[in-house]
């Protein structure tokens, strides 16, 4: 049963990540450089995909650094994580691809007692404290939510269509 659960989670989570990569890849370079909202959503998605796969999250160290800002952040930003510089599409895609492998390894390692591991941010009210399975599902939903935003921007602004993935590996 655990094998079936792992395969199902990976097939759907991998598909969500593939669609994120495809949305970023489909985006024309000029739009990516000029449309800050698209860029910040893509960056936010990449960072949090990696973060929610970091158990425990206390040791999280992203490949693409950011600064946390409380004041004077760009209006297009998502949350308070501001990239230290404007990363290229290729850098974001490589980061998401690395996180895709991390996700697959995390899911494949789930068995028995590993299902009891927890993603615990801290002891403050509002800090996340989720079982590993729940943080994986939360991460999948978060990734797909922001991927849908990217697809919407591409469709509304440029009339571009990015591919749908039924399962991990369906699209290049």
Order of strands in the sheet with the most strands?
A: 1-2
Structural class computed from helices and strand pairing: mainly alpha
Radius of gyration: 16 Å
The CATH architecture classification is Up-down Bundle
Beta content comes to 5-15%
Mean of all residue-level pLDDT scores: 91
Fourth CATH level, the homologous superfamily = dinb family like domain
Count of discrete structural domains: 1
Q: Total number of β-strand segments?
A: 4
Low-confidence stretches: none
CATH class: Mainly Alpha
SSE sequence, one letter per element? HHHEEHEEH
Task: Estimate the global geometry from the Cα principal axes.
Answer: globular
Q: What's the main sheet like? A: 2 strands, antiparallel
Ends distance:
29 Å
**CATH topology-level fold name:** Four Helix Bundle (Hemerythrin (Met), subunit A)
Helix amount: 40-55%
Number of helices, counting only DSSP H or I runs of 4 residues or more: 5
Protein name: DinB family protein
Domain DinB-like: 83-150
Pfam family, one: DinB_2
Organism: Flavobacterium magnum
Give an account of the 3D structure.
The chain has 172 residues and is mainly alpha-helical. It has a single domain (2-61, 87-158), classed as Four Helix Bundle (Hemerythrin (Met), subunit A). Helices cover 55% and strands 7% of the residues. The chain contains 5 helices and 4 strands. It has helices at residues 2-26, 29-34, 36-51, 89-108, 132-158, and strands spanning 66-68, 81-83, 118-120, 129-131. The strands form 2 sheets. A two-stranded antiparallel sheet has the order 1-2. The two termini are 29 Å apart. The relative contact order is 0.24.
